[in-house]
User: What shape does this take?
Amino acid sequence: MKKVWTLLKTDCCNILGLNTLRYSKDSKAKRRSITLMIAYAAVLIMLVAYPLLLANGLRAMNVHDLIPEYFLCITSLIIFFFSFFQAGGYLFQTKNFDMIVSLPLKPGVILFSRFLRLYLGYFGMTVLVMVPSSILYGRWTAKGGSYYAMLFISCILIPLIPMALASLFGSLIHAWTVRLKHRTLFSTVANLLLMVVILGMSWGPSFFANRISLDQVMNFSDTMSQQILRYYPPAALFNSALVNGNAVSYLLFAVLSILLFLLFFAVASWKYMYICQNMQVHEASGNYKFKGLKTNSIGKALYLKELKYYFSCPIYIMNTIVGYLFIIVATVVVLIMGDPSRAMELPFSILDYVPFVMVFLCCMSSTTASSISLEGAHWWLPLSLPVSTRDIMKSKLLVNMTLAVPTIVLCNIALQIRFGFVWYEFLLNMIIPVVCCFYISVLGLVMNCRYPLFEWKSEVVPVKQGGATMLTMLIGSLSLAPFVGVVALCSALLPGLVLFMEVMMTGILGVAGAALFYYLSGMDLKRL
Assistant: This one.
């Protein structure tokens, strides 16, 4: 256990920047570590605030008995997706395989230390999501001490099932694709298909409902509970234990969670060395023929290099394409269902907020927030080329815009054909998301230049755990919130000023993005 603790402590200190804060003599590096810790704290506050607001909303709808199982499913789904994308890249990472196997450590010790590091992060997230809302539910329903005891013990058990299942599926997909010639393409497609299947199972029945009245929305407790239990059976045991105080159900939930984890861990430890060795296999091309060389301009060559790297890294793709994928899925749903606000009898039209929905989803999907960190130990290569900082930044910026602009334009054209917006509304529906996406893309580059992360063993670290990624999402959301708030306020109080405010706020964000890009163009990249 001492060896596991040593590996775990080293890993956590490196991720949180504690070693830099304690031992580094570089004041700039220390300031970066402090800023990242502040960003982590802000995210933690948001993780606590959102469940509390949602729990109060469920109580207002008189369905507060759904709170335990509802938040259990939300937490489990988040853990499943995050674990699924990390399984092959972290648990069985091979970039430091030779160093690890040379240590006097058993495979089970190595695997357990990595699994424990992931588990501690998800345990913390479970506590932040589950405990505040569940405490409110306990106070509203006057639960006794046994309820709170089961709640806190459950926080230890909840991450086990989604982590085990996600790690199993992720490892199987990685093992299946590792020997294929186009393994990156197959791995990415398989991951996307699994994501779409899970989302389709969760949302499918509601997508094709003919009409949902407000009364049905206010009395959907039984239907929602049935859907939750249908797709996640352990929620039935959990709900029976916490809501009804059933000790047998709680014992079954605990036994099921522990057994599934132990089963996965036993198999993974048994085949750990075999899995790691096979993940290092690469398919070599046997029919290489020299057909001459192609030349391109500096800008195009850098752009094609960035684009090729993007599509060669499944972790990079899966964590930056989700927002654009959601835009496409939401557009298809609206095209099939029509205006959702009519079906739900809302006093406003959701179609009036199309550009702002796209803006929010684009904010989730910036490729630039980790594009510099992903250079890793090869960052010196672009710096040694006779190219300007502007060219390097432009190539990274264009990758994100290549994903965003076609998605935004095509989806808006489809919506225009279906609903026939006024011409200026159609233009704004395209211009607002594109300008905001440009701003978020440049902001991601600025954050990544300020907080680069070049020392990593797996792409998971800069893509999912990098401070630049977190700060880009946090600052981007906070800076776009006034835009949306002002427009929504004008829409409610002064409808005649909505068009003017949209144009003005879009112009402000465009100027801000251009100013940030000008700042980047004059930056000395060798000092990063």
Remarks:
- Confidence is low (pLDDT under 50) at residues 204-220.
- Residues 298-528 form one domain.
- Residues 20 and 30 are 6 Å apart (CA to CA).
